[in-house]
Amino acid sequence: MGAxxxxxxxxxxxxxxxxxxxxxxxxxxxxxLVQASLRSVGPVEGGAAAVVEALLAALGPxxxxxxxxxxxxxxxxxALHRERVRGMGEAELAAYLDAMPAFDPDASPASPxxxxxxxxxxxxxxxxxxxxPQTSFSAVGPAAAELLxxxxxxxxxxxxxxLGALYRAGGRCLLIGPxxxxxxxxxxxxxxxxxxxxxxxxxxxxxxxxxxWREFRAPGVSDDHLxxxxxxxxxxxxxxxxxxxxxxxxxxxxxxxxxxxVAAMGGPCGG
Length: 271
Description:
This protein is of the alpha+beta class. It has helices spanning 14-24, 47-59, 79-85, 90-99, 116-122, 144-148, 162-169, 185-192, 226-234, 254-264, and strands at residues 31-36, 64-68, 128-129, 137-140, 172-176, 197-205, 211-219, 240-244, 247-253. It has one domain (12-72, 109-195, 223-264). Strand 8 and strand 9 (247-253) form a beta hairpin. Helix 2 (47-59) packs across helix 5, helix 8 packs across helix 10 and helix 9 (226-234) crosses helix 10 (254-264).
C-alpha cells in the first residue's frame, strides 16, 4: 500500500514557516541570500510562492531577499552545456547553437538547476536582476539595486559581483535542506586564486533584440570542492541551525563564512 495522502493539517503554511524563520534567526531588515531544496521543506500550502511569502514576511519591508538565478547552460564553455551537446555531430551542434536562447536579464528564466525558489524570487514584482549571462542574481528590497549594480563579465562570483556586494553589506545566507554547495564560498575561490583564468563564450540579447556572442576571460568556476570547504568553515565559525517546515537549515554570516573559507584554503592570493 502507498503512503497516505497529505492532509491539510500536515501542510506547512506561510504563518508556520514565518515562525520557523524567526526561530532560525532571520531578522527584519536582513539582507538574505537563500539557496533551497524545496522538496525537503515538505508539503506547503501554496507551494514555492508561499515559501517566498514567508521569507518576505520574516524580512519585513526593510529587508532584502536575494536568489542565485544563474543560467550556466547559456555558455558554450560550461560543464552543463558540454554535457548537453556531448555526442552531437557537426550539423546537429551548429543547429543547437543557432537555436540557443540569448540571455536577457528581464526575460530569461533561471536554470532549472538553480531550483524553484530562485525562479520565484526572479518573478517577484519589483525584483531586479544582475546582467551576467552565466551567474546572475535577483533581489527584491531596499538594498537590491546596490547589491546588483555591478556584475562584471570577468567576475562571475568575485569582488565585482553581487557576492562581493553581499560581503561588504554584511549579508547572510540561508541554506534550506541538504545544500552542500554554498555559492558564497566562490568569493573565497576568487580571493585565493584557486582556479586559473580561462575563456568563456556566451550568447546575449543585443541592441534591437538580436543575438550577440560575447567572449571573455575569467577564473574557472567549479562546485566540486564546496562541500569540503563547507565542513572546514563550520569547524571555524558558529553557524545557526534550525528547521523550516521539515527541512534542516543553516544560517551563515557571509563575511565570516568567506573569511573562514579563505583561511581554510591557505589565505588570500599573494598573502
